[in-house]
Every structure is written in C-alpha cells, then in structure tokens.
Design goal:
single chain; 609 residues; alpha+beta; Immunoglobulin-like; Heat Shock Protein 90; 3 domains; seven-stranded mixed β-sheet; five-stranded mixed β-sheet; 15 helices; rod-shaped; disordered N terminus
Length: 609
Amino acid sequence: MKKILIIFSLFIFHLFGNTINVDLNTSKEILSQSKIFIDETKTYEIDEIIKSDKEFTKINNSIKRFGYSPDFNIWIKFTLHNTENVPIIKILEFDNPLVTNISFFENNDLIKLEGLLNKDSIRKSVNPIFEIYLNKNETKTYYIKVFSKKTSLTLKLNLYSNDDFYSKEIFHQFILGLFFGAMIILALYNLSIFLMIKDVSYLYYVGYIFTLVLHHLLYVGFANLYIFDTKFMNVIVNFAAIFIAFPVLFLALFSKSFLDIKQYQKLNIILNILILTLVLSVIFFSISHYFSHYRNAIPILLMSYLFIITLYSAIKKNAQAKLILFGWAVILFAGTIMYISSAGILNIDFTSYYIVEISFILEALVFSIALANRIKKLQEEKNTIQLKLIEEQKDNEEKLNKLVLQKTKNLNIALEEKDILLKELNHRVKNNMQTIISLIRLQNDEINDININNLLTTIQNRISAMSHLHELLYQKNTIAFIDANEYFEKIIFGVQQSFNENITIQYKITTNIDAESAIYCGLILNELITNSFKHAFNSNEIGLINITFYSKDGEYCLQYKDNGKGYNSLDKKETLGLILIETLAKKQLKAIFSIISDDGISVEIKWKE
C-alpha cells in the first residue's frame, strides 16, 4: 500500500508540477511558468506535438525575444487549473501586436487564429487575446503556435480577469491616443509654419513626424486595430523596410537643411552617400527576403552618423546644432530601446513605462522649439538686414543726390556752353548771310537789266528770310520756339523795302512757331509776298494783302490772300516761286496745301505742330 501511495503522489506531482493555478480575481503573467519548443523544420502539427511532447523546455522568464523574422515556429505549452468551485472566464493576452501568425489550441483543438495577419474582426484590443473558460476545479492544457513573418517575434503571455484586462487596455489606448494626438498637432503646427515662411526644413520635419507616427501606429498595433485591414497589413509587412526607412530619411533631409550641412563639404558627401544607400537598401529589402533581419542596419548607421554630424556642428559653434543635439540624444535612446527590444538583445519590457513614446514627445518638442528659435533668428536677421538696407539706402540717396547735383551742374555748364555755341553759330550764319546779301545788292546796283535786277532782288529776299531767323535765334534765350510775329514782320518789311509799290500788307499773327518749321514757313511767306508784288497788281494799282497765322488743336495754319488779278490755273507754265511754295509746303512741312484764284489769290497751308 505504501508503494502505491508513493507512485500515486509522483503521478500527481508530474501531472500538476507545471500547472498554473488560477482563481476569479488574480491576474498574472504565465510565460515564466510555461514551456516552449522550437520547431526549426516548421513541419510539426498539433497532434504530433501532443503525442511526442517533443523537447519542451522551461523558460523561467516573463518575456522571451527572438529578434526579427526568425525562420522557425515556436510552440508554447501551459496548463491552467481552476482553484475555484465555480466556473471562471479569463482573458489570455499575447502581449505583442507585431507577431504575424498565432494559432491557439485547447488540447488538440484549434480554437482561434490571431496575429497581425489574422486579426479577429471583433477584437478591440491592440494585442491578440484569447478567452479561457474553466469549469470549477477543471484543469486544461493549452498550446500556442507562433510564427512571425519579417516582424519581430516576442513572447509575453498575461492572464487577466475581464475587469482588469479592459481597465488596463482602456488606459493603455488612452495614453497612446494622447501620444499620437500630440505628435499630429506638432506636425500640423510645423506644417502651418512651412506654408507661411516656405522654409523646406519645416516640410522635412513634418514628413518625419507623419512617417514616425505611421511607423509607431504599426509598432504598437493601432494601425492594425483602427486603420488597415488584414489584406493591406500583409502588403505593409512585405514592405516593412519602407516604413522603417522613411522616418530616418526625412530626419536626414531635415538635419541636412536645418544645420546647413553643405558648409561641411566632406561630411555632406558622406551623408549623401548614406542617404542613397538607405534608398537602395529599402528597394533591396522590399524585393528580397534574404538578410531581412539586417534591414535596420543602414537606418541605425545613418542615425548614428547624423548624431555625429550634429555633435560636430555644435563643436563648430553652429547655434542650430546646439538646440537639436539633445533631441538627437533622445531619438537615439528611443530608437536603441526599440531596436534592442525587437531584436531580442535584451529581454526587458519597456512598453508598460511608455519610455519610447515619452522620448519621441520630448524629441518632437525639442525640435519644434529649435524650429521656433529658427524663426526668431530669421526674424532677427531680417530686421538686421532691413536696418542695414535702410542705412544703405540713406547712404545711396546721399551719394545719388551728390551725384545728381554734380551731374546737374555739369549739364548746366554744358547747356550754357551749347547755348553760347549755338548763338555764336547763328550769329556767324546770320553775318555770313548778310555778307552774301550785301554782295548781291552791290552786284544788283551795277546791273541795268530789269529782269536780272528782279531776279537778284528775289534771291536777296530769300536769303534775307533765312537770315532773319538766325538773327532771332541768336538774340533769344531759347531756340526751340521763336516769335512768329516778330519773324514775319522782318520778312514783310524786307520785301516791302525791295519793291517800291503802293501795296498795303495787313497781318494777324497769334502764335509762336518752332524753329524747324519757321525756316520753311518764312521762305513760303517770302515767296507769296514777292509774287504778289511782282505779278498780282498793275502799275500804280493800290493793292491789299492779308496774312493770318495761328495754331489750333496741335495744328499750324497759314492763310494768305491778295486782291490782285490772280493767275490762270489752266496755264501749265508755273513760276519758280509757285513751285518753291508748293514743294516747301508738301515736302518739308508735310502740310495740306490749297490755292484758289478768285478775285485775287487765296492760299491756305495747314500742318501739325
């Protein structure tokens, strides 16, 4: 009998030696009291596992990490015993949202599929959960098959009562919600600043925050729970390298722009090479399954190099670098924690302390403060530049005023010299013409031929008409316009002195005339008066000539009329004087010329000023 009792005791000990006792209220971790088996062949099924009980070993740790995408299946075995006299329901939480495939067995029955790629549609928790039902004093053995595709494989099992689990879950999701809300607000704040000042550093930083938020949504399980369905999550898992690299890429571009790394030529070349390597590595790891556990190597190398560049810039007294050096230290701290945890280097659970989230918030605040300080510095530089520009404008105005005064003085001197030269020129021309007139007059006195005398007198009057103009230009201060009344009087008087005829000339001249038009108009008037004196009247006949000259609406008008005998318009033979009048009017003045022979002769000439 004694031997039978000993054998029975050994049986009971073996049966319940690894049994986990549970009651109504107790919540506990159970991985340390479980056993695991690593199926490196990935061929074992549940029946083989139960029958053979193959090499299950005790863990003795509350958390076990196997790094990124291990190429094997893990089986977890644990036994639960209900110590209560009533049925109990427990929630088993697999505390890792990144494991892709989880199969939950009760003895040899598959109860549920879960994981990143098999999410239960009714689940509202970030981590996979399984419901445990035990009748009073019942004992059950459970198996969990775990496989992770490309993501990290971490084992952590917690058993909760309903109230404890959902209280913990609500708090956990609330804290994560605050984190994501704060990050998105910071991103929108910096985006608004970018839209105002168009500084590309802010755009890169906004890109960094948004991609970091997306990465962390995947890391903590929010993306799988609230945003993406299982089908899309499978795409994300296959291209996980992209979601790891994007935050690092934007952070590198931000640092390059914010710290103006181009000023450090060699460091900038190395940084460009690392950025290119990061892009190429993303492409490689996205299309290849080989070496996928090394996909974080390039991002970590690039982040370390960025920290070195920032430290170097701070040593070189780059004010911007000093502000973000602390932020970089926080990023490296948080990134290191995430990496060593996911890679299985340390079996320490940091999630319950929210160390990563706190680090990212601190980093984002520090970088935002640095960017805000950048605005302040840019504003100060702008104010300094504006003050400098104002001073330069004052100096330039003073220099310009001095230059203008000097130029004006020089121009006035030049104008005075020009006026003197022009007056001297007109005086010389007038004197030369007077000399020519005197010579013609002397020659005329020696000739007794009446026809030649008339011809020489006509030539004399023509030269005299031009001479009067140069005389007036010499006498006046301005050469642009001359007094038409004074000029025409001299011409009229000169012709009257040349012919001893009983002819009265009446004139009304009400405008000035520009110098260029005056010479042609004076010649025309001289020819008209000369023709009237020579041809319009018979000997001893009393004649009358009317001359009107005015300007209106930008147009000169010369009207000439005598009461002589006129001329026969049908006579094809025209005098030189009439040809000269018409040519000067049409060709030189571009005038409208009209002549009417009715009770004398009437001429009207109009041209634009």
